[in-house]
Amino acid sequence: MAGKLTDKVAIVTGASSGIGEATALALAAEGATVAIAARRSDRLQTLEARITSAGGKVLSITTDVSDEAQVEALVSKTHSKFGRVDILINNAGVMLLGSIDGADTEDWRRTFNINVLGLMYATHKVLPLMKAQGIGHIVNISSVAGRIANAGSAVYNASKWAVGAFSEALRKEVYQNNIRVTIIEPGLVATELPQHITDSKALEQAKNFYGSVKNLESEDIANAIVYAVTQPQHVNVNEILIRPTEQER
Ligand SMILES: NC(=O)c1ccc[n+]([C@@H]2O[C@H](COP(=O)([O-])OP(=O)(O)OC[C@H]3O[C@@H](n4cnc5c(N)ncnc54)[C@H](OP(=O)(O)O)[C@@H]3O)[C@@H](O)[C@H]2O)c1
């Protein structure tokens, strides 16, 4: 498929649903070859079939980003098959909201293993390849929760704050290698993200919050990602924060 990203190879983590799925479709529609990663293989296979039938090039690789060896395999399989990695979309994430007091600390470990360490592992694995190519773009999905902390969201806030800090330091380490770094900070997007909350009170509150405004769609975020990665090489879109119009905080 011809487009602004023809000849580019992109990896999208968390591509089995929501923002990652929409982003994989949008990048493929711009001509990118996409490696799609997540744990749910059946969903990846359905997406692979959609992209292929639309004329796109795609490879699905079942990956748990909290496992460093699996992330290494994701990057090396993509590179072996397609010969390069131009774009990494670090999107896989969970939002396990709940108060600090009384929390199930397993939620904390999952949050940091996926939202923070998973993103760091993938970045670590692609950097040598991008440096050798002399070009690359890493897009990290943070959140409005990476900019504004709230009661009941401390650990999710902390994980997304970490994404912001890591991304800015990364940018300073790699800009001279022609590697661009972007963080995307969505507000409320209609996806399955809140459904995985394990704390029943926090789940109820999240449902009410999501239900209180007209949410963004995953495609709205995919459009912002496509905008960032299709700018000329001298333009480094560092940060995009997007809320639904009706969202206040
Ligand atoms: N929806 C919102 O309101 C919103 C707002 C701000 C930021 N975000 C961020 O956007 C990103 C995508 O979320 P979404 O809203 O699209 O939710 P989603 O539909 O639940 O998607 C999350 C994705 O992450 C993947 N994932 C979770 N754990 C994983 C693991 N251990 N290894 C690999 N993949 C894993 C899931 O796939 P599997 O379960 O198949 O592994 C799924 O594809 C997240 O980083 C989230 O924090 C979302």
Topology, pairings included?
Layout: E1 9-13, H1 18-29, E2 33-38, H2 41-53, E3 57-62, H3 68-82, E4 87-90, H4 105-133, E5 136-141, H5 154-174, E6 179-186, H6 200-211, H7 218-229, E7 239-242
Parallel strand pairs: 1-2, 1-4, 2-3, 4-5, 5-6, 6-7
Helix pairs in contact: 1-7, 3-4, 4-5
Residues 13-20, 38-40, 43, 63-66, 91-95, 114, 141, 143, 186, 188-189, 191-193 line the site of NADP nicotinamide-adenine-dinucleotide phosphate (NAP).
What attributes does this structure have?
single chain, 249 residues, alpha/beta, Rossmann fold, 7-stranded parallel beta sheet, 7 helices, binds NADP nicotinamide-adenine-dinucleotide phosphate
Got a strand count? 7
CATH homologous superfamily grouping = NAD(P)-binding Rossmann-like Domain
Strand percent estimate: 15-25%
Q: Runs with pLDDT <50, length 5+?
A: none
Structural class: alpha/beta
Measured distance between first and last alpha carbons: 40 Å
Molecular structure report:
With 249 residues, the chain is an alpha/beta fold. It has one domain: NAD(P)-binding Rossmann-like Domain (Rossmann fold, 3-Layer(aba) Sandwich). Helix content is 46%, strand content 16%. The chain contains seven helices and seven strands; from the N terminus they run βαβαβαβαβαβααβ. The longest helix is centred in the middle third of the chain and has 29 residues, at 105-133. It binds NADP nicotinamide-adenine-dinucleotide phosphate. The site of NADP nicotinamide-adenine-dinucleotide phosphate has 30 residues, from α1.
